[in-house]
Inverse folding.
């Protein structure tokens, strides 16, 4: 079998080798298993269902939300000599009839359909009557309210698993938020699916976070030696975008503003000038970027805090498409957290508020992290890393490390003892021997860890737990009130086989930090700011009804 999928790869698609994890995914799907693929756009998800479609009997049904995408895929397949077709609202009845005829004659390998079409009664009857190779669900995040592009017509797709229990299902998305992913698995009824998360690392991008002090001065310092390079500066509001662009021009930079409030023509001009390298810097709101595919963007600066780790990843990902070294700089300040929070709280929908506060919370945790930025970022998407990147701000100027093995063992065994059923706040209460009522209600034999951590403050335990989440020893499930769980990496630590070094919080280690070459003379003081932020984050979490921790890595997703 393995040889023949390579033949298919070569002869049909014209490629010489699979990318990880294509081959493994393809083999599983051919074997009839469900798979959930989380890979960035361009990662190569399509092959993961297209090759199995050619190796399994029957037609592969591909659900895709956008007619334009469907058409591109089908045209590409036809060009490779694959029998593919699509059914959507743009077809005239005669065209649709012809597709059905080819299907009935067993001539089709892949059929692309819109989700609303798939679940029409007549179509379902048809599906039940013919052999099906597989279901592929592209843009699977559309099924989740947690995702950024919820589509009601996707929610019915959960029925596929019930109606066709034996047909393998391949769900795909590039939108990788862990919460959304859990929800997708649940909604599609494929909790047993093997989850693949791959390809999120952008090794040529260097990640840096600076405490925001005098942002324009910091920006100017950053740009001083980059006058001739192309870059994007993201800011939160249209007003700020205009203002920063103007100040940059006043300082002699080639900069223009871009936001949704500008006339179409002006926006096109900016985009075009940037593309042709006639313009160096675009100062923009998040409205800029969807359509641009400029290879030589050398840096992306976040003048204000992005609203989620996904947005941050998407936006920084616009740098360095050509593979050359590029930089991501985030200016991170407390005021932004408050602004973001009040914007979120303007929403009428309490569920939306809860979701967005959590996302903001994760973003703040990333910015505050004492662990390698790349590792934290990839961990957020579920890609485990066991080494530091060596070129982010944390790696370049690491916080003081201390052997925290003993404290770590206490936390891990406490999480274990309480049956991996409680959130951080409760675990800390148990560790510190709190007299709270919930704890008293627990059975005595579960509480052998009661009070073993009275030597550290709640704040210190909080910090340790957060680092353990970032480092991938603990998981936190927000779909279940932030319950902490152990990852496989926790086992050797519990057994005392490996030591764990943690970063000493900079707030206590050193308040004033020396200026760094990258910031070109701008003084930073992490400490005080971070302490205030921590308190603030706690408040956000309290109000959102969740503990002040985020999922930064998760062994299963
Ligand atoms: P995604 O759906 O994940 O965004 P695609 O499936 O559209 O990505 O693939 C992105 C690009 O990568 C396409 O041009 C595709 O032909 C190419 N590609 C995919 N797999 C391979 C491979 N194994 N070798 C070479 N090119 C590949
Ligand atoms: Mg795709």
């Amino acid at each position: 079998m393995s040889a023949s999928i390579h033949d298919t790869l070569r002869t049909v698609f014209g490629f010489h080798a699979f990318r990880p994890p294509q081959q493994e995914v393809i083999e599983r799907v051919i074997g009839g298993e469900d798979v959930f693929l989380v890979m960035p756009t361009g990662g190569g998800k399509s092959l993961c269902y297209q090759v199995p479609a050619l190796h399994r009997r029957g037609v592969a049904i591909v659900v895709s939300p956008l007619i334009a995408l469907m058409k591109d895929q089908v045209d590409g397949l036809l060009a490779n000599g694959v029998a593919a077709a699509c059914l959507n609202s743009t077809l005239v009845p005669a065209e649709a009839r012809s597709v059905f005829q080819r299907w009935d004659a067993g001539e089709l390998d892949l059929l692309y359909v819109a989700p609303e079409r798939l679940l029409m009664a007549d179509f379902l009857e048809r599906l039940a009557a013919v052999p099906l190779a597989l279901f592929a669900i592209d843009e699977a995040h559309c099924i989740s309210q947690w995702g950024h592009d919820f589509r009601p017509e996707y929610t019915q797709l959960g029925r596929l698993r019930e109606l066709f229990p034996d047909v393998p299902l391949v769900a795909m998305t590039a939108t990788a938020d862990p919460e959304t992913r859990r929800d997708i698995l649940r909604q599609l009824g494929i909790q047993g699916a093997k989850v693949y998360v791959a390809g999120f690392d952008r090794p040529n991008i260097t990640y840096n976070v600076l405490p925001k002090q005098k942002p324009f001065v910091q920006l100017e310092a950053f740009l001083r030696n980059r006058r001739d390079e192309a870059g994007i500066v993201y800011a939160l509001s249209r007003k700020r975008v205009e203002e920063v662009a103007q100040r940059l021009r006043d300082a002699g930079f080639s900069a223009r503003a871009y936001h949704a409030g500008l006339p179409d023509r002006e926006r096109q001009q900016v985009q075009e000038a940037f593309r042709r390298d006639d313009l160096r810097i675009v100062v923009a709101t998040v409205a800029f970027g969807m359509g641009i595919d400029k290879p030589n963007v050398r840096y992306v600066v976040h003048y204000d805090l992005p609203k989620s780790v996904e947005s941050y990843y998407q936006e920084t990902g616009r740098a360095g498409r050509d593979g050359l070294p590029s930089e991501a700089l985030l200016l991170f300040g407390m005021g932004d957290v408050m602004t973001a929070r009040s914007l979120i709280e303007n929403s009428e929908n309490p569920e939306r508020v809860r979701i967005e506060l959590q996302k903001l919370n994760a973003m703040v945790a990333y910015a505050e992290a004492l662990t390698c930025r790349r590792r934290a970022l990839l961990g957020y998407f579920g890609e485990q890393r066991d080494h530091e990147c060596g070129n982010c701000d944390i790696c370049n100027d690491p916080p003081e490390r201390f052997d925290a093995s003993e404290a770590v063992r206490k936390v891990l065994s406490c999480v274990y003892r309480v049956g991996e059923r409680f959130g951080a706040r409760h675990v800390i209460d148990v560790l510190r021997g709190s007299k709270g009522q919930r704890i008293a209600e627990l059975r005595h034999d579960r509480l052998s860890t009661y009070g073993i951590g009275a030597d550290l403050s709640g704040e210190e335990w909080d910090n340790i737990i957060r680092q353990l989440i970032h480092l991938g020893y603990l998981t936190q499930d927000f779909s279940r009130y932030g319950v902490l769980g152990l990852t496989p990496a926790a086992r050797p630590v519990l057994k005392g086989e490996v030591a764990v070094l943690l970063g000493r919080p900079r707030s206590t280690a050193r308040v004033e930090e020396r200026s760094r070459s990258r910031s070109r003379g701008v003084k930073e003081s992490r400490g005080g700011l971070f302490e205030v932020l921590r308190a603030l984050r706690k408040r956000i979490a309290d109000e959102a009804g969740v503990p002040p921790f985020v999922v930064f890595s998760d062994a299963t997703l």
Notes: The longest helix spans residues 350-368. The pocket of magnesium ion (ligand 2) is lined by residues 45-46, 138 (CB under 6 Å).
